[in-house]
Amino acid sequence: MQLYILGIESSCDDTSAAVIADDVILSNITASQDIHALFGGVVPELASRAHQQNIIPVIHTALQKANISKNKLSAVAYTRGPGLLGSLLVGASFAKAFAMGLNIPLIEVNHLQAHILAHFIRGAEKSNSVPVFPFLCLTVSGGHTQIVVVKDYFDMQIIGQTIDDAAGETFDKAAKIMGLPYPGGPLVDKLAATGNPDRFSFSKPNVPALDFSFSGLKTSFLYFLRDRLKENEHFIDQNKADLCASIQKTILDILLSKLEKAAMETGIREIAIAGGVSANSGLRSRLEALRHDKGWNVFIPPLAYTTDNAAMIAVTGYFKYLNKDFANQSDAPYARSRF
Questions:
Q1: Of 78, 248, 274, 300, which cross-links 95 as Cys (Cβ 3.0–4.6 Å)?
Q2: Per residue in 288-329, pLDDT tens?
Q3: In CATH, which superfamily holds the domain spanning 135-303?
Q4: Does the reported pTM lie above 0.85?
Q5: How many CA atoms lie within 13 A of 161 on its CB side?
């Protein structure tokens, strides 16, 4: 019997709903919140209010596009955490009520695990290849930076992570320092395409083992620009593309040097990336180059599955359903990772 899973994602500022038939995606609808650009970052209270406005029309559209009625659903999967508590509560509350009303199982999903399992979403043609266990996954977003050994769908071990700031937050912070609007990460990537990545150099951390650190890089970038602006108040405007290319190169150098080290230490050659920063064109192209240089089997997610989306929640829910791993109505959302 085919399983139809409704996935609901509301961990931050995107309200998303998706319907999956087993592991084949039928719909994936997301409503973004533009209001946060006015404040240079996500405002939690505004995010939770917008989720309340968006969640019903987004779910209705997802079911409509999938061409199934709610009565055909096998289960409802939702993001339990980590994320903004107010945002998570909206998605969790709706998912619990919807599952109870339909008398179908409720499935809670860890947001970070879902980013990794997005690699197992299949299109209608089922032609896309998926990683073979065990594989390494570099999970990079605005809130998290991790290297994970994925031994099975729910057997994952973090072998490296940031000890302070995340890579995605570093992209956004660098963009803000240069006066770019929020969200700045994609703009840095766009401008970097026309810049010289070797024009400027910034300090790289000396962190042991496979962990990351980005706080020192942010400070180095801030002080560098402060000193240059004293000499030339138009320095940023005159060198914006080169600055973007140089800071992006530095961040990617840090990420990929640790990933190469992890692959060498574990002997794993199945390599994947996940999370919002996996949409970065520089990271994607450099990983493709490593595919040839290192002989890795590389898996890069489609752009639709890099940022927060419900398709990854739905496919994770599918694999949990197969294990009969269902949630309780009493399960509360959590802000910090329990991965």
A1: 78
A2: 999 999 999 999 999 999 999 999 999 999 999 999 999 999
A3: ATPase, nucleotide binding domain (3.30.420.40)
A4: yes
A5: 14
